[in-house]
Design brief:
By secondary structure, the chain is of the alpha/beta class. It contains 19 helices and nine strands. It has helices at 4-11, 18-30, 49-56, 78-83, 100-103, 119-131, 157-162, 168-174, 188-205, 215-223, 229-243, 251-257, 280-309, 313-319, 321-328, 342-345, 380-394, 399-406, 410-420; strands at 37-40, 65-69, 108-112, 133-135, 142-144, 148-153, 177-180, 212-213, 248-249. The termini are far apart.
Length: 422
């Protein structure tokens, strides 16, 4: 078994990052077997190198190796490309054609961007993985194939499964061994090394001196997030090699080639986009309104109970000034003498059982209000008895719950029940 450094030299892999070394080590270990392998990683990290390592170190190395980009084949023809078709199977099928699985029998197939496969094709691929059988398009004859499948994707497969874009059973068949290639931003020590290699290669290719970075430019190179990974780094090195006359690249020059280089590199939490049918925000507003209404009702019950207990309305108003302001609001202005008090708004008497005649409205701003004929109020005792009866009925005779609703203790409620013979 070859060591990691020998494999790097053989396949021109550059870098000494521990995560990269671990990925290569796993590829070396699984190569002699026929286990299906799933290579994961962001776009541009170099996932295509792993299947080549696996094939070259396996017993299938003398057979064919076919790389298929599943995202580049149209959905209507991908079954024909992978499994072949019979003559006359569809319009344009003028002759029988062998698919990749038939041609690569005994070898290895690399399915790049496997997450882009249509669901119907995924069912066919699952059958190949399970028992090595497949059907050509337009044929009823089952054919056998002996291929090793190595797949790669930059899609989050678990999310794709949740969205029902990828079959869960196929995912577990493909990912018997999963090899993850780290993004370039997690390989800080390899970034400058890779840039120097690319600059040297392009200098030889275009027959010009190799470009070199200043210290400030090297710092910028390492701090940049590289969303396109190694592919983007290679393109940047090629652009600078061709376009810049000066072979010494400064911070300003490099910054001009890096998109959004001046933006913050701090991580940010990005929530999932809500659909137009998501009413969660409206629901939260309604809940808040209902809770506020419930709080106001409890405050009103407490104030009403205080009025029933205490015949002195002015004293109650003074003791519960904060509560009254909370319920009826406070615009910061003093209450004029001819304005109605909160007691008058509640239509309760200021003194014991006297019929109250509301004072006329002085300002024209209440012209829209309807005139309300005030009904004769009940006596204090009758009102209290009525409240207790209704509370007991709502709580099905449970005194503890009724006492909590009325805002009094259970002992006080029991005493009043005895007092009024309820």
């Amino acid at each position: 078994m070859e060591n990691i450094q020998a494999i790097k030299q053989r396949f021109e892999l550059i870098g000494n990052d521990p995560k990269l070394n671990r990925a290569i080590e796993k590829a070396i270990q699984v190569a002699p077997t026929d286990i299906s392998v799933l290579v994961t990683g962001e776009s541009g990290v170099g996932k295509e190198a792993i299947p080549k390592i696996i094939h070259s170190l396996s017993h299938r190395k003398h057979a064919k190796y076919i790389a298929v980009n599943c995202g580049a084949i149209p959905e209507g023809t991908i079954d024909s490309e992978l499994f072949g078709h019979e003559k006359g199977a569809f319009t344009g099928a003028t002759q029988t054609r062998s698919g990749y699985f038939e041609v690569a029998d005994g070898g290895t197939i690399f399915l790049d961007e496997v997450g882009e496969l249509p669901l119907t094709t995924q069912v066919r691929l699952l059958r190949v993985l399970e028992n090595g059988e497949f059907l050509k398009v337009g044929s009823s004859q089952v054919q056998k194939t002996n291929v090793r499948i190595v797949a790669a994707t930059n899609v989050n497969m678990l999310d794709a499964i949740k969205k029902e874009k990828f079959r869960e059973d196929l995912y577990y068949r493909l990912s018997t061994v999963e090899i993850n290639i780290p993004p370039l931003r997690e390989r800080k020590g390899d970034i400058h090394l890779l840039f120097r290699k690319f600059a040297s290669d392009f200098g030889q290719k275009y027959k010009m001196p190799t470009i070199r970075l200043d210290d400030d430019a090297v710092d910028l190179l390492l701090k940049y997030r590289w969303p396109g990974n190694i592919r983007q780094l290679r393109n940047i090195a090629e652009q600078i090699s061709v376009l810049e006359e000066s072979r010494n690249v400064s911070w300003e020059t490099l910054n001009g080639y890096l998109p959004n280089a001046s933006s913050s590199n701090l991580p940010a939490v990005i929530g999932q986009k809500k659909s137009e049918s998501d009413f969660s925000n409206e629901r939260e507003i309604l809940y808040k309104v209902l809770f506020d209404m419930k709080s106001d009702l409890n405050d009103l019950k407490k104030l009403t109970l205080e009025l029933m207990k205490n015949s002195d309305g002015e004293k109650v108003q003074e003791e519960n000034e904060g509560l009254i302001k909370k319920i009826y609001g406070d615009n910061g202005e003093e209450v004029e003498e001819d304005e109605r008090t909160p007691l008058e708004v509640l239509h309760l008497p200021e003194s014991r059982m006297e019929k109250h005649t509301p004072k006329p409205v002085m300002e024209d701003k209440y012209h829209f209000a309807e005139e309300i004929q005030e009904e004769e109020t009940l006596s204090l005792q009758e009102k209290e008895v009525e409240l207790i009866k209704k509370s007991l009925e709502r709580n099905r005779g449970k005194r503890k719950a009724a006492a909590a609703e009325l805002g009094i203790s259970e002992r006080t409620l029991y005493r009043k029940i005895k007092q009024y013979d309820l």
